Amino acid sequence: MLETAPSSTNGLHISRWIHSTARLLFAHRILLISFWVVLFFTLFHWQRYSENGLLIFRRKLPNSVEFPKLRPAAFNLTEFGGVGDGLTLNTAAFENAIRAISKLGKQGGGQLNVPPGNWLTAPFNLTSHMTLYLAEGAVILGIDDEKQWRLMPPLPSYGYGREHPGPRYGSLIHGQNLKDVVITGNNGTINGQGQAWWKKYRRKLLNHTRGPLVQIMWSSDIVISNITLRDSPFWTLHPYDCKNVTIRNVTILAPLFEAPNTDGIDPDSCEDMVIENCYISVGDDAVAIKSGWDQFGISYNRPSTNILIRNLVVRSMVSAGVSIGSEMSGGVSNITIENLHVWSSRRAVRIKTAPGRGAYIRNIRYRNLTFNDVRVGIVIKTDYNEHPASGFDPAALPIIEDISYESVHGEGVRVPVRIHGSAEIPVRKVLFRDMSVGITYKKKHIFQCGFVEGRVIGSVFPAPCENLDLYDEQGRLLRRSTARNASDIDYDF
Description:
- The protein is mainly beta.
- It has four helices and 30 strands.
- It has a 24-stranded mixed β-sheet that branches. The protein has a four-stranded parallel β-sheet with strand order 5-10-13-16. The chain has a two-stranded antiparallel ribbon with strand order 8-9.
């Protein structure tokens, strides 16, 4: 058989087919690679700027924060031009955001989210049906230029500014005639930058009373929780003539010295209120319950009543852990203070008033108190003579009665009890039960009384004053006092 050589024409066709197929496959490969590149970058861009995105592509950006949605509508401060660099003034951003929320009341209101950053601002007003949410790392900074703080009329129950006659500075965060307001977050901070204010106050360079950090007036259904308040120019948190207020899981801080009048929480003519689970360390009273000052408070006639304070850890080297008064001219009643720990403080719990205040302090219950390293544990003082004007009536004498102290314990206390009534303002119906306080000075008169009437039930240490009747644990009378008007008050130690 003879072999025949392949045709040159067939070889040419095969070669052309191979080159054509290769070119086609190469072109498809380029198209396929291009398709996958475009798809990848599309998905990456989408997941980066989308609220949801694909879970497999999502990643946490350095400044991204997931906010819980607590209202039907939610806004971010940056949507209104906010810049959290600590230098840019964000007053307009807060005002514009709150103005938008004010239009949503019928839909359930709105939430303003403040992301991490330092958000400098002048004072601004809240609106009803609003939640102000501060993320972790978010700091609202009050501008320390008093020219940017608006002036307001004196509080009607005070008549004068607390420090000067006439107008007073408003608060950094303010609200009036509101309903359903929440200030909360993931422990974000509201910082009043009070250092400049305190310095000017000490140098007498201010012509008006300093403003609080947060003040809510004539409002109801208020919740303040899970935030830190610090360095207020004046009182820190001041609910005024409000109803149904809850303050929970709040930290309040100011220097212990040279931060004048930086009270922590001052419920003022408030009704139905709970303060719980807070830590407060400030330059004045940690909590001070008030209701107006002398003739102005008597005329305004709004008591502080039905207030529960519990589970607090507090410190005050200048004043007291929890005080009632001295401005109490609208009356204070139905107060329960329980599970309170006061440490390294000048006083633990104090009631203070004076002739001219009028009204009453009654039905006050203290339970489960712990004092550690405190100069004076329990104080009632009836000659706290600060008055707004000379027109007060010295014959307007407050009534102090029905005060009980149960389960009081501690150590390192210099004077466990000092109840300083007077012939004009005696203290009536006081009860001590289950008290054991370790003392630092073993002097005779460390349970001090003057013009006091009441009972001691069961075991109380140190030994109670002779003004009080003694009963055993079963309530049987052991000794009737014959010296209720005696006084052994000693301020020398």
